[in-house]
TrEMBL record:
This is FtsX-like permease family protein. Belongs to the ABC-4 integral membrane protein family. Keywords: Cell membrane, Membrane, Transmembrane, Transmembrane helix. The keyword Cell membrane applies. Residues 270-390, 730-845 form the ABC3 transporter permease C-terminal domain. It comes from Streptomyces orinoci (Streptoverticillium orinoci). Residues 19-234, 492-692 form the MacB-like periplasmic core domain.
Length: 853
């Protein structure tokens, strides 16, 4: 208890010096707990939704392996409804006619599709829908020209009852009047939903009055879901998917869980980086506190305190810091989760804070992380405190054994850094992505640890170089700042290492992102011969869309592109499911693929195809061989290999080509997938006219994006940029914690040098010069960390690009402007971090400072 009381007294007396470490623990724990609360809330909310919408038993078409993609979903015959109604235990049968492949536009051609990428769903209104939706305005659809829209989409796009909407579906386009608005009883999953009467949903969405996409069955009183499933399976056979409500909920939860797991573990990964950076801050804090209390600890040792008691005293302070920071972090995490829910709401997914889910394990995880990390970080300073001898402390001597420890540390750091560099070199030379990725991960880990360990050794060299360039112009004040930065290399190294971690990841990702954009742009220049690329948003082109595109003027040709599923058997007797690229022969001009044998145009001949180089080597396929190609839902063909394409590309890598005419020969018309993309070539000298004509022709279809090559390059750049900005935003937490580390180091350093500062002020150093000295010291430390981080990140990024080159992304692009901006930004960060410590130092009373022990 005496040790605890002493620790509590020390903790409270130095609470100001502990504040920034407390914030670091708080932020790290808040990120972890916020992630867990948010994903648990999402899971619980959707569990409630799945339980609401599930019927006692659902009957749906059986999924086929490698099925052909179609704009119209798989269906069941309408005649099955009567058979299901006659099954023992069935009280009610609700037919379902639903599709996710529609586009809905307003009168001014504004698409109602969610910006989040969620689908636009069209389905029939029946009693099953009333489980999850209430019509809060108007009435249910009663005819072919009526529809009900979900209220969230209506509010977002200012759609009112009575407005006219245009529905673009696979069977054709049609218009409806909004006769009602429906509101979710639980949560809006983010989709736009439009309800029709059953007959309209069948004919206008599925293209047939004799088909449904599924049936929802209600069990009779006293009949369990399991028993009803058995009865249904016995009555209709095994050719269907039959699920109970519990099984449907489990399947939906599994699908959602895979998405949420990716989100959760990605966020926890960034939280882990912030925790790692926070460790440096805590280590520095306790190391400096121990150094500042050397005399106090020596007195305690002199009056009988053992090394173990001193050690426990410091660890008890760390425990108090960890518990306090964790408790505050848990509360902050709940607030962060609420903020994320509000953000999802702005994207269209309405999550109710009443459903906020805080599992019992979440606070325990947060508390464990905060306490364990803090105590472990304080362990080395605590050991150092325990080793202080009474006499050395009373003489204000340094800690024994530092020189020996420094040599061992330096040797270990050099060894780890060299091992990491070797692993990165081997990864760059690897010809297999799997082994190269493993070596890259090992190289990143070893090089990071190595530079952290060897940081104090590098501080002496790099800080002097930076000082010679940056500080010399400031005269004696600059030399004083350099001396202060070099006074304790271990402290400087630890502070800079915290900043290094975040900036190394920023630099590596910048190199990878820039290289991906440059490689893709180079591939477009080298490979894409088409002037225009038109994507359908994954929904496929309807006949009306194709007719509109063909009406455009000034075009040399228009190419349809899609994919078909088949099982391919090679001459060596091996077979496997493949996706074959079916296109018009003009596609050979639109995408200039290099071949190692034959000509690509030959693949578009009748009953011909191409195979990629790697596939040919693996299966010993030669030019002229015939492959057995069993089309899914179609007949079997014997196709001649007329071309073997090079694998040295990023576009369509691994694709097998054949003509659309060949695919249609072996597939029924209703099983032939619609075109997914269109490529167009303008007539010579009419590129601008062709672009204007194409855009005008497709104006009625907002989901179709007409892009020329420059637009397509910009799209690639924007997509990579959005991903990088998201990652940078998540890394910002680690950088913020690192900045707190710089502030904390300077603040404690000012306290440590109170008497020295008083003496310097007494012999003529002005307040302005003092503040400038501290700011320059901060800038040097920040630039030291930036140099380490940017150098390390360049190595990681360049190695990662070598692995991407195996996938055809073979251009290494170093984003020097970005890296330069990060370096200069680090100097500004150093200046900002020093503002508070410098201000405090400048306000010191000179006489009191000199009198300080």
């Amino acid at each position: 208890m005496t040790i605890f009381r002493t620790s509590l007294r020390n903790f409270l007396s130095h609470k100001g010096r502990m504040a920034l470490s407390l914030i670091a623990v708080l932020l790290s724990v808040a990120f972890v707990c916020g992630t867990l609360v948010f994903t648990d809330t999402m899971t619980a909310t959707f569990d409630k939704l799945f339980a609401t919408v599930a019927s006692d038993v659902d009957v749906q078409p059986k999924e086929k392996d490698n099925a052909q993609e179609s704009s119209i979903p798989a269906t069941l015959p309408a005649s099955l409804r009567d058979r299901l109604a006659g099954v023992p235990g069935v009280a009610k049968v609700e037919p379902e006619a639903a599709t996710r492949n529609i586009t809905v536009t307003t009168a001014n051609k504004q698409s109602l599709s969610p910006s989040s990428g969620a689908p636009t769903v069209g389905l029939n209104w029946n009693d099953s829908q009333r489980k999850s939706m209430d019509i809060t305005r108007g009435h249910q659809p009663r005819g072919a020209d009526e529809a009900v829209l979900d209220s969230d989409t209506a509010e977002k796009h200012h759609v009112k009852v009575g407005d006219t909407l245009r529905v673009i579906a696979a069977p054709g386009d049609f218009r409806v009047h909004v006769v009602g608005l429906a509101t979710y009883k639980t949560t809006n999953p983010g989709a736009a939903v439009l309800y029709f009467d059953t007959a309209t949903a069948q004919t206008k969405l599925l293209g047939s009055a004799r088909a449904f996409t599924g049936y929802g069955l209600t069990a009779a009183s006293g009949v369990s879901d399991e028993q009803l499933k058995k009865n249904v399976t016995a009555a209709i056979g095994e050719g269907y998917q039959v699920h109970t409500a519990a099984e449907s909920k489990k399947e939906n939860k599994k699908s959602l869980g895979s998405v949420l797991d990716v989100m959760k573990y990605a966020l926890l990964g960034f939280a882990g980086i912030a925790v790692l950076v926070g460790i440096f801050l805590i280590v520095n804090t306790f190391s400096m506190l121990v150094a500042q209390r050397t005399r106090e600890i020596g007195l305690m040792r002199a009056i009988g305190s053992s090394r173990r008691q001193i050690n426990r005293s410091v660890l008890a302070e760390a425990l108090l810091l960890g518990v306090t920071g964790s408790v505050l972090g848990i509360g902050g995490g709940i607030g962060l989760a609420v903020g994320l829910m509000k953000l999802m709401g702005s994207l269209g997914m309405k999550l109710d804070t009443a459903d906020l889910t805080v599992k019992a394990t979440t606070p325990l995880v947060g508390l464990a992380i905060g306490v364990v990390v803090t105590v472990l970080a304080a362990y080395l300073p605590a050991r150092r405190a325990g080793k202080i001898s009474p006499m050395a402390a009373l003489r204000d001597a340094g800690n024994p054994g530092d020189a020996k420890a420094g040599k061992v540390r330096a040797a270990l750091g050099v060894l780890l850094t060299a091992a990491g560099g070797g692993a990165l070199l081997l990864a760059a030379r690897s010809d297999r992505a799997s082994s190269g990725s493993a070596l890259l991960g090992l190289g990143i880990l070893l090089s990071l640890i190595g530079l952290v360990v060897v940081g104090p050794l590098l501080a002496g060299l790099i800080v002097r170089v930076i000082s010679a360039v940056v500080l010399r112009v400031f005269g004696p004040v600059g030399r004083l700042a350099e001396r202060n930065a070099l006074r304790n290399p271990r402290r400087t190294g630890a502070t800079a290492s915290a900043l290094m971690i975040g900036l190394s990841l920023v630099a590596a990702l910048s190199v990878v992102g820039s290289s991906m954009v440059a490689s893709a742009t180079d591939q477009v220049d080298r490979s894409v011969g088409a002037d225009f690329i038109m994507e359908s948003g994954g929904k496929g082109y309807t006949p009306a869309m194709l007719k509109a595109a063909r009406s455009a003027r000034y075009l040399d040709h228009l190419t349809e592109y899609t994919e078909v599923s088949a099982r391919v058997t090679t001459p060596d007797g091996k077979s496997g499911n493949q996706r074959l690229t079916a296109a018009d022969p003009s596609y050979a001009q639109d995408l200039r693929r290099q071949t190692v044998q034959g000509k690509l145009s030959g693949a578009y001949a009748a009953d011909a195809m191409s195979v990629p180089e790697g596939f040919a080597k693996d299966h010993k396929v030669k030019l002229g061989d015939r492959l057995t190609v069993a089309m899914t839902d179609g007949s079997t063909a014997r196709l001649r290999v007329n071309a073997i394409t090079s694998d040295d590309t990023a576009f369509d890598k691994g694709a097998m080509y054949l003509s659309t005419a060949t695919a249609k020969r072996y597939l029924p018309a209703d099983k032939m997938p619609p075109p997914r993309m269109l490529f167009a070539k303008a007539q010579d000298g009419h590129a601008k006219e062709a672009a204007a004509s194409l855009k005008a022709a497709m104006a009625d279809y907002p989901q179709i994006k007409v892009r020329d090559q420059s637009d397509y390059k910009k799209l690639i750049k924007d997509q990579v940029g959005q991903l990088l900005n998201l990652i940078y935003g998540l890394l910002a937490l680690a950088v913020i914690v690192a900045i707190l580390g710089v502030v904390n180091t300077l603040a404690l350093s000012v306290v440590e040098r109170t008497r020295e500062i008083g003496l310097m002020r007494a012999i003529g150093l002005s307040r302005r010069q003092l503040r400038r000295m501290i700011r320059l010291e901060s800038v040097v430390i920040a630039l030291f960390g930036a140099l380490l981080g940017l150098g390390l990140g360049l190595g990681w990024g360049a190695t990662a690009q070598k692995l991407l080159a195996l996938q055809g992304l073979d251009v290494l692009e170093i984003p020097w402007p970005t890296l330069g901006a990060v370096f200069l930004g680090s100097a500004l960060v150093g200046l900002a971090a020093a503002l508070a410590p410098a201000f405090r130092a400048g306000r010191m009373n000179v006489l009191k400072a000199i009198a300080t022990d």
